[in-house]
């Protein structure tokens, strides 16, 4: 019985060695990088067949045998892969069973809107724009994540991210929200406040984000808006009107605003409505959040662009001072 077992073990080891040599020598027909997708729930046999069709293996039997010998039949990870040209069977096996999926790097600029972020994610190959917009508009998901608003606008923290290619949109949105709350706690020194307070802070920060150009002026711009709110004055932020035009009406970003634009009937138009708009108009970054959390005291009620090249503003306490020596500036 012992001799029989030893003989069987020897045969298995010999077969393994021969198969290993064959696998290392066998090169796939395709020598170029190949995008290869493993769907969730795919069997080892289905993956092997797909690899053969993609030209990544010449003989799927070798691949399946190697999987079985190593006990990895159930270890292939779902995802999108970029398989290097000329990969051997053993390296291909390692890539798929270790889940070395293709990664996509994407930078979300400060002040980006939800719609812009969705487009950037799609362009980077992270997830499809419609799927992301659906996830970010899911009220139940927003509530589950502790968001005070009805969607994710304002709470998708602008930063550089690395996501797996073809990620699930929901997971992408969740990660960006998690980054927001992490950064908020870091800046404020405490956990998130009551929902209404948090929403108001983010709404104001989203406006400041779209108005400031120099980080050193973000706090003063926040002070202007807070002073106007305290006096019951309309914010009169051009950024809110641009939001209405581009995000609510779906038009191109205007190069200049006209008086007729300031009269567009929309609750986000801060020229027509007092107080804060119903929700954020962008996704604010660190400087805008800091400006709202730690707003310096001032008596300023107005500001206007003073130097288009440097982005500096002139701040005023009265309308007369604000309009004196005004230099028309196109663009914002």
From TrEMBL:
Cell membrane as UniProt keyword: yes
MF term (GO), any: lyase activity
Gene3D superfamilies xrefs: Endolytic murein transglycosylase
Alphabetized CDD domains for the sequence: MltG_like
EC numbers for this chain: 4.2.2.-
GO biological process, one term: cell wall organization
Keyword check for tRNA-binding: no
Top-rank EC class of the record's enzyme: lyase
Cross-referenced PANTHER family: ENDOLYTIC MUREIN TRANSGLYCOSYLASE
Protein name stated in the entry: Endolytic murein transglycosylase
Organism annotation: bioreactor metagenome
